[in-house]
Design a protein that fits this description.
Elements (H helix, E strand, L loop, with lengths): L1 H7 L3 E5 L1 H11 L8 E7 L9 H12 L4 E5 L4 E9 L3 E9 L12 H13 L9 E3 L8 E2 L4 H7 L1 E2 L6 H4 L2 H13 L2 E2 L1 H12 L2 H11 L1 H15 L4 H10 L14 H17 L7 H11 L3 H10 L4 H20 L6 H8 L4 H10 L2 H14 L8 H6 L7 H14 L6 H8 L1
Parallel strand pairs: 2-5, 8-9
Antiparallel strand pairs: 1-2, 1-6, 3-4, 4-5, 6-7
Helix pairs in contact: 7-10, 7-11, 9-10, 10-13, 12-13, 12-17, 13-17, 14-15, 15-17, 16-18, 16-20, 17-18
Bound molecules: adenosine-5'-triphosphate.
Length: 424
Amino acid sequence: TASKEAEKRGWHLYLVGGAVRDLLLAETETGTLMINDIDLVVDGFHKSADVGAGVELAKALQQIYTNARLEIHGAFQTAALLWHKDPELDSLWIDIATSRTEFYPYPAANPEVEASSIRQDLYRRDFTINAMALRLTSPRAGELLDFFGGLIDLQAKQIRTLHANSFIEDPTRIYRGVRFAVRFGFAIEQRTEEYIRYAINSGVYDRTSQANTKTPALQTRLKTELKHILEAPYWQAALELLDNLGALQCIHSSLSLDGDILQELHLLKICLRKFDKQYNLQHWQLRLEVLIAHLEPKYRAKVAKNLQLGDDSIARLKTLSEMQTTVFTSLPNLQSPSQIVNLLRKYDLQTLILIAVKSPRKVRRKIWYFLTNLANIQPLLNGNDLKQLGYKPSPLYKQILDDLLSATLDGIIKDEAEAREFLA
Ligand code: ATP
């Protein structure tokens, strides 16, 4: 339908980016291909008024597929159509961009110029395997446009950049390259690796960390890429490759994977396995916080802020070292469950996890014991019960309920009847 609508208007329509790559990959692999994210580019205008072609095409499609939601991003002349959890389509996202013809002063009716316009669009992309287009409109519908050797690289299983400056221009491409390499089991092509190392050695951290004020978009993209990596099943291999390339320096110049950090990430893995059902945890964010928590305390909050983590994360990383000292010094001396609860319930779950993975075994075990067995125990009576028992509502309620909880935790009272007796 999209190509018919484009043809009606005399435009070319291309499928570009990841979907083309995944289609070509699927040809050589078995199994079903699921593409939920489709990027289309409209190109080949006859009128300068057609610069909003992507938006117009998306609007026309929405008239036909009325259950799709339309989003328009005016500044970039792009539009998105979204189908959310449609029973037949599941969730589907189609981005429609307009190739930037304003760069091309020649009449676009000339086929060579049309081709060069889509070529330029593809040239701005990150890797050859992501820089192919499939023509969807006639004539020559179904033709693959592969100006930079993407297909050969797919077959050779390699990640190759389009130009030497690519990683200087956009350091998040280093993270993208690693993500694709690990995800597909590809190698980073030798030159590309050299360009990556060059970009890193030329002070990529300074640029990404200062970018917060200058170009926050770079930090947003870095966070997005980190999220993709850290929530993927292959996160560990990806981190190791990033480290190997020195690319963790984009997070902080002193960050690298040493034995301690690997042990902490391993303990986090155990922790997530233990508590994932009980608590709703954001795995990627905790992994990132473990990495940041490995930096010297004075850098942590700044790095978290640069990466635009939430206020809760920033606050947690800012005060982690004091909280850790308190727990390390107090917890080993506490024996009764109520004492342990009274100390640890002050901290949120993520803080306790961050402290646990950094703790000596004895401390860690007590934190895990708290999270598994103690944290969710409630007092056997509540405020209403106290009222019924004749207590007048007052701030004392909290103290009474706390005492009840402590007695319950320490096994002094076992049921509601004993709780009432305890209060009497
Ligand atoms: P995935 O399957 O992981 O979503 P994708 O290739 O579709 O992979 P997107 O992040 O959706 O990844 O990006 C879509 C396309 O946009 C890419 O295929 C690439 O051509 C281009 N692209 C995305 N990010 C960049 C970047 N930082 N620099 C250059 N091109 C990019």
